[in-house]
UniProtKB/TrEMBL annotation:
Name of the protein in its database record: DNA alkylation repair enzyme
SUPFAM superfamilies referenced in this protein's UniProt entry, alphabetically: ARM repeat
Coiled coil start-end: none
Gene3D superfamilies in the cross-refs: 1.25.10.90
Xref: PANTHER family: DNA ALKYLATION REPAIR PROTEIN (PTHR41291:SF1)
InterPro entries in the cross-refs: ARM-type_fold (IPR016024), DNA_alkylation (IPR014825)
């Protein structure tokens, strides 16, 4: 399918009720059609991976076309300049998370983008940095102790950001670090307790979320069992 054929299909599949539901969840629907992500994944299965098509779809400016672009893009062939351009184009939290989950985390630039974007001024670029961190912390086989220490530094430095979409991504990253291993769980909880003492509301809120989730008995048992299996 060409980008125009896909765009025509997306417009046919657009749903007003879906748009209303998206808006309720804080999704920017100014350029959206109301097509759910599962349908986009079905279209992606038809098209297969295709960087050129992904760029064409992104450049249409349509919300769902951009999400589809993140799904069909080829991470191993993606260039850093386009990655930065897309990050700066983002205007909604859901697109940001699809972008990081489907694409950024899987590129060779993931770690560099974490370090760069987590200190950016633009809120969705900054969210993209911490969302990529959340993915990397939980899933990357290359995660090292020094990476985690660096992540903790970024989290501590940026936990005072009052913008909700940034704060939630900081919280997501911290919680995912604490879900990786029992060792990182203890370190993440220790950091959260330090953050709780900060005289800044966003830091306290993030700390409370992390402490509550990371000290759940079920999670701790899972991490202890995992540690025993790896001995």
């Amino acid at each position: 399918m060409t980008s125009q054929e896909i765009l025509s299909k997306l417009k046919e599949l657009g749903n007003e009720e879906n748009l209303k539901g998206m808006a309720k969840y804080g999704i920017n629907t100014s350029s959206a059609l109301g097509v759910n992500v599962q349908v986009l994944r079905e279209i992606a299965a038809e098209t297969g991976k295709d960087n050129d098509l992904a760029v064409e779809l992104w450049d249409t400016g349509i919300h769902e076309a951009k999400i589809l672009a993140t799904i069909i893009a080829e991470p191993e062939k993606f260039d850093e300049g386009t990655l930065d351009k897309w990050a700066n184009d983002i205007n909604s939290w859901d697109l940001c998370d699809q972008f990081t989950n489907n694409l950024v985390f899987h590129t060779e630039f993931a770690m560099g983008k974490i370090l760069e974007w987590c200190v950016a001024d633009e809120q969705f670029v900054k969210r993209a940095g911490f969302a990529t961190m959340a993915n990397y912390a939980l899933k990357s086989p290359d995660l090292r102790e020094k990476d985690v220490e660096g992540f903790f530094g970024l989290i501590m430095n940026e936990c005072g950001d009052k913008r909700n979409y940034v704060r939630k991504a900081v919280s997501w990253a911290l919680r995912n670090i604490g879900k990786r291993t029992l060792h990182y769980n203890r370190k993440a909880v220790k950091l959260a307790k330090q953050m709780k003492d900060e005289p800044i509301r966003p830091a306290k809120e993030t700390a409370g979320e992390a402490i509550k989730e990371l000290q759940k008995p079920d999670l701790l048992k899972k991490l202890k069992d995992k540690q025993e299996e790896e001995k």
